[in-house]
Write a structure and sequence with these properties.
By secondary structure, the protein is mainly α. It has a domain at 26-94: Tetratricopeptide repeat domain (Serine Threonine Protein Phosphatase 5, Tetratricopeptide repeat), CATH 1.25.40.10. It has helices spanning 3-24, 30-38, 42-55, 60-72, 76-94. The longest helix has 22 residues, at 3-24. It is globular, with a radius of gyration of 21 Å.
Length: 112
């Protein structure tokens, strides 16, 4: 192959990697979020949860964790709203599931 073909392929590979990089970036884990909270980096934890909620808007657990962070920041009204969203999503997730699964009412995802 001539060098122009190789240059073209290298350029395409570079573009694919540049475009695909955000998709390859790992989403924050629950442990990373809680580590940031316990270290007092609430802004960082809140930013991580914003990303998680953007990717998983129907996750009751994500809304519950966001409510915890907002409460720690003293933003109680917003925390209450997130807790309500978590509860609605939890109930929606339980719809159609067996009612035999019982967990503590404070745990996200509890089915009654």
């Amino acid at each position: 192959m001539n060098r122009f073909v190789w240059a073209g392929r290298a350029g395409l590979l570079w573009m694919a990697l540049a475009i695909g990089t955000p998709a390859l970036a790992a989403e924050p884990t629950l442990n990373q979020v809680y580590e940031a909270v316990h270290a007092g980096r609430l802004n960082q934890a809140h930013g991580m949860m914003t990303e998680v909620l953007r990717n998983h808007p129907d996750s009751a657990k994500a809304h519950y964790v966001e409510a915890e962070i907002l409460a720690k920041e003293g933003r109680y009204g917003e925390a209450h709203g997130e807790l309500n969203r978590a509860e609605r999503r939890s109930w929606a997730a339980c719809n159609g599931r067996s009612r035999q699964r019982r967990t503590h009412p404070a745990s996200p995802g509890a089915c009654f």
